[in-house]
Structure prediction request, 520 residues.
Amino acid sequence: MSGWRRKAAGYAGATAAILVLWQLGALAIGSRALPGPVPALTAFATAFWSDLAPHLAVSTWRVVAATALGAVLAVPLGLVLGRSPRADAVAAPLIFLTYPIPKVVFLPVLLVLLGLGDASKIVLITLIVFFQLLVTARDAARAIPAGSVLSVRSLGAGRFDVFHHVVVPAALPDIFTALRIGTGTAVAVLFLAESIGGTTGLGYYIVDAWGRLAYDAMFAGILGMALLGVAIYELLEVAESRLCRWTRVER
Amino acid sequence: MAGLVAEGVSLTYAGVGRDTVALDRLDLSVAEGEPVAVIGPSGCGKSTLLLLASGMLHPDAGSLRVGGEPVTGPRLATALILQDFGLLPWKTVFHNAALGLEVRHVPRAERLERVMTSLTRVGLAEFVDAYPGELSGGMRQRLAVARALALNADLLLMDEPLSALDALTREDLQDLLLELWRQRRHTCVLVTHSIEEAVFLGRRVLVLSPRPGRVAAVVDNPRMGEPGYRATQEFYERCVELRRLLAEEGALGALVGHETGRVDAGESA
Prediction:
């Protein structure tokens, strides 16, 4: 209980500090392009249900679907590669060559091939999340101490048991770290993809408001994007503290 | 049921550029219910012997039998306790102890009962929901023992199980292992670096030669397990004898330094 209270107090303090800095920044710069928190929050509140909510929903769907898809594809593959030297010998060169290529440059190609709707954005973000999780899961599975595997195998565990009892839980904290970094990138790329192609999503909303010189609405969109990022981060935090409880108790 | 017999067992590890002969035609026989300690210089193949006996490795030549059956893979009633205890940090005390039963698909109700019984036996019943990271070294070792007990193991293979513990905890755990053996009379092979531990927990002590490992000498230790044995003249004499045999094998430099002090203390008792 006191843990929750301390956390809530921390968030309240941080929010207050950000609002104060924002207000000071707005006053110092004195431009219409940077409204202070009061007009921005007012615009956010008035535009939310009428205007913003559908775009927020579309953006949320795209990020969540793409992240889930990327994770479902990358994590099992990465773990298997990390535990199987033979599979890794085949796949590693392919990964090393493709991982460093910035996937975002394929945005124009995807927009042409898949259109301006959800598909192009989801595929692009899936690609980015996929590679980050693949490399992390592979490295985490490789780093598992031989003793952990040996002790479970000596109990009569087969391949599946070793994955279930050792490989997956051992790699989970690293996978959560990669997910947090990956979803951060994902929201950033989402903004880019939505601002370039299509007429839906927060990225479109922000750039559209910008074009209309509706700076308060633009800031409402920016707040929506920030909210999306914070919500995903917090969700991962809660999931990790549930699934990786042991990492919180180590002394 | 679960005596261990090794005949002409050889194993070579293929290395980069150079192969390492870990065991060379090793013969060994442990009777059912007999506690045997294995001691020898570092790298003499002691751990390899346990991995072979547990079915985790397969010999290049020779054969191993447990309870008359050839060892082909992990056996249901063989428990292997490793130096680092083999605990999984992401599982609670309960689930660590239950791991062998879970892997073997023992029904939930029976699992619960067997795990709680074995945890109670090693004094960890109050800590079922703790994680290994929250336990002391001695408690972790108790947990590793509880996992073996939950399996109803009739053959216990232990690879320097107490080497990471401080001297007092170590004696405490030695007493626990002895007490469990007295109650259950399982077959037991204990690999150790400690002369005193070998004499305290082995009714026979096998001295292995430096690599490649073979049985160089056997010390009979019939009074092992008697109350207060640790403080007797005979215990001390066995330690001295073992020390001499190990010196002949050129192994003493490899043994832990604090042994000297512990054996001297035995003399004054």
In short: The two ends of chain B are 39 Å apart (CA to CA). Residues 167-184 of chain B form the longest helix (18 residues). Chain B touches chain A at residues 54-56, 74-76, 78, 80, 82, 84-91, 99-100, 102-104, 130-134, 147, 151 (CB under 8 Å).
